[in-house]
Write a structure and sequence with these properties.
heterotrimer; A alpha/beta; B mainly alpha; C mainly alpha; A: alpha/beta; Beta Polymerase, domain 2; 5-stranded mixed beta sheet; 6 helices; B: mainly alpha; 2 domains; 72% helix; globular
Chain lengths: 182, 446, 412
Amino acid sequence: MDAALKRRLQARFGERLTAPIHQRHDQTEIRIGPGDVPDVVRTLHDEADFRFIVLADLAGVDTGSVMQVVYHLWSETSSDWLRVIADGLSREDPRVPSVTFLWKGAEWMEREAYDMFGITFEGNRDLRRIYMPPDYQSFPLRKDFFLPDDAARSPGAGVRHMEQSHTPTNAKAATLIRKTRA
Amino acid sequence: MTAMARSFSRLTLGGKILFTLGPILFLLTIGLVLLIAIAGKPIVDFLATNIWLVRFVVAATAVLLMSVPTAFLIIYMEMKIIALMNLRIGPDRVGPFGSLMSVIHGLKVLAKEDFSPTGADRLVFTLAPVAVFMSTIMALLVLPFAPGLFGADMNIGLLYLFAVSGLSVVGLLMAGWSSFNKYSLLGGLRSAAQVISYEIPLILSVVGLLLLAGTMSLNQIVVKQGGWFWNWYVFQQPLGALIFFIAATAEANRTPFDLTEADSEIVAGFATEYSGMRFGFFFFAEYVNVFVVSGLIVTLFFGGWNAPFPWPWPITLNIDPGSLGLGLLFAILIVPPLLILALAAPFYLGRSSMPWWQALIIGFVLFNLLVIVAITGWAFVSWNWVAGLMVFLGKSYLFVFTFVWMRGTLPRVRIDQLMGFAWKWLLPASLLNLFVTALALVVVNK
Amino acid sequence: MTAAPPHDHLHREVPSDDPRVQLDEAAGTFEPVPPYPPRTEREAEFYTLGDGEMFINMGPQHPSTHGVLRVVLKLDGENVVDLDPVLGYLHRGVEKLCENADYHHTIAYLDPLEYISSLFCEWPGVLAFEKLLDVEVPRRAEYIRVLATELNRILSHSLFMGWMALDLGGLTPILWSFIERDEIAEMLASLTGQRLLFNYLRIGGVNGDLNHDFMSRLGDWMTRATTQIDNNLGLLNQNEIFVRRMRGLGTMDKETAFRMAMTGPNLRASGVPLDFRRAHPYSVFPELEFDIPTRDEGDCLARYLVRIDEIKQSLRIIDQCLHNMPDGPIMAKLPRLLRPRPGRAYAAVEGPRGQYAAYVISDGTDQPFRMRIHDPSFVHLQAVGTLMPGHLIADAMAVMASLDPIMGGVDK
């Protein structure tokens, strides 16, 4: 636990934090509103006190009531992982500004979060599905994801198996008639 | 008789072949007999007056017939030698040490579906492998394998060879264009760029040699290199030989210049859409081409069928079996069984676990090998073309081995490095070679 | 009676003045252009052809895409103008699977992510769970973990050498490096029981103690490892064609590397000595001596050489582990059913490709509420978008090989 980092963070972002700074093991956690993400992240990245230049991870989270976007940052000024949580995204239309202006490498991680949670990252130039098919409609890692619903909506719904789609060429006439009647 | 009663479609594959080929052969035989009986004399007379026609047909047939085993042998070499370099075992199932594996590959491509992709230009797509294969085969026609053993001795042999082997790029381009596939197209264009660029240093590197030899006939070039091995042109034209070797590697599309079929970049290049025997033609042509290129290097720079020292042939062994009289008959009857027994005896006596019939089989095989070796050895020393052929093939396969070795060792160059190397290094070097040779000739002749 | 499946959007009307429709009509249906209107500006820009350009569809069955990756290349002749990687052919939904497995079972799901470096995929998950549970791992277990993972690192890097050469057209190095890989795989098989997906780390320790078979194999191999690796390197390092093709290719400077969120050897090849074994120490790495090899060039050759140097450092670490191996238990005392207190934990390790990380949220039940897996291959693969354009196809392959992505990890 890095108490100095906690003090610095408290001093710099005191009024923007939506929850008290939480520290456990080698992690320091701050929570901010989604609108503050670009400012806070840029400050963390640029200012000599922080210099969090490595984006270790970017993850979407569905807590069941709200959506979150979680950034993990590393800096040589601190021995802790800094976890920045953009908290309180609405579940109906989760929106958060993109961080691709700082880390171009966040682009695919944001695409993944969009693919899995439906979180829209404003400013990401290429926000489309990355793992799931482009015509897929559900968001699999949301807590309200329900597999039968998803199967009914998926592009594969109603597609017959390959064996069912052709009648055998050497089938007897009776079989053919039965198949056409069925 | 049941087989005859069955309808044709119900026959097995063997039956179908038998009942198709049998009648055809029968009719052909009858036709031939009738032809000879009716018009035998005029045909023979005609052929006797036009012996070049016979020679051409025989040579073409021989070259076609030898191309397939040559390809098989080189494919097997490539599989086995690269396997050993990779510390693998390689083919080891079919035939001794897996030596029939490439034959199985050949049968496999024959049995595959003859497939042409949607959107392909059928005619060009079908003709492309033929064009590639034919250009390679035609190049074989002028290679002097041994004294007196060549398809045709043209006084412009070398020119013909370059012209014909340059044709293969047309085939590759046809394949690349007609496949309706961008990988094929890229492969075809790459091969066109590559072959055309390397054709220039390839030809220029030989011009110095031509100045020295004063002839373009491959036979004459070989004859002029006779005697000791320092008469070979490689010692008078080392730079030319080096340039020729590199350019020939590129001409034959071999590693490190195998960009046309760079599998890690453009899948299989021009051959991406080919399967079955059409691909087989490309495949065979590539390996026959390796042999042609090796043979050409040997012919031009390494003395052709000349041995490295003045070969004292032909030695005539004065064996006259007829002088033995009735003894010859006895010898033929008695010597083989005796020798078989003599060869089998050590195995039978030396190994208590071996039954007598196994020892006899071993003895029989050894005896046959001995006879083959004796006959070959006799032919080798008494017929100069046999010796010449052996020397030529030995040298050629040494170069084939070098090509295989390079494939096992080197990575691939990039297309711009490839072109830059041809235009910036090989072309000036070959011009320099030509200039120095000409200057030396002028100085020496003065 | 069944209702019509709601995928009518597939048959959406496309305006006929759309350039892609004209393209389709001109060239048949073989263009790798998606059959729906572009969803983003980037997609619209990419799938519009300029003068003299063409698309080429590389993969998912291309020989050198390291698995089932599909890359749509926009080419001008042989020059790569732009590219659009299409992922998802190997997507298994590991994060979703982990949410429905209990903490012990999760480890088995982490294994096949990057099948070349399985232990490194398990490790961050296990570390994160240990943080959630406040478990103290016995020192012997930590040493065994370091020993096994460093062996896995060598395995991964020696395979990288082979692939790198194979993508440049060299046939032999891959088979030579497979000898190396096979010996280590056999070794780890006698330690863990499996050759590929080891499933060896456990929450609070490891699955089995060092055994005689493993130790004798390891001792035997260690005596000739350096010579053997140098032998393999001799094929490539002194090969003029190889060096000339790799040098100055796909250069990435320090700032770009940070901007691309790169870690591991790919970052160190750009001159940043960032290694989480030192930068954010975990396990027993503070007690071990090793250097962090870096290169300043940032090109493909540097990325290759950094990995080669890392093999040697890994050998050093293994040596120290064997000498300092303490006695004691290999597992912490833990209940069968784990119910950590609600909380969040993040753990990262330095793997052969970069930072492997896991982010776990617990809600007090025996299953993770959210399990986020961070894989370096996924992050590094997007760098091809900036590194490939402007190069020839052949170089594009070399660039991709030098980043060393494993599609199992990219597609999760």
